[in-house]
Design a protein that fits this description.
two-stranded antiparallel sheet; 2 strands; mainly alpha
Length: 66
């Protein structure tokens, strides 16, 4: 069984505090959460759903916690 990364729960708590009523986030919302520009989100390699252009908070937390 795989183990969660150490910062996953802290990151999820922060994302839930910033966006309590949302499950998925747009590129602009991810940029606001990370405190960077939208183009920086793309350069950092954050992967978004190709059909919707959004990412779930759980997927974002996994991608951030390297």
């Amino acid at each position: 069984m795989s183990r969660e990364k150490e910062c996953f729960h802290d990151t999820m708590a922060a994302l839930n505090a910033m966006f309590p009523d949302q499950i998925t986030l747009s590129k602009g919302e991810v940029a606001r959460a990370l405190g960077v520009d939208r183009t920086t989100v793309t350069r950092r390699g954050i992967k978004f759903n190709t059909a919707t252009g959004r990412v779930t908070k759980a997927d974002l937390a996994r991608q951030i916690c390297i």
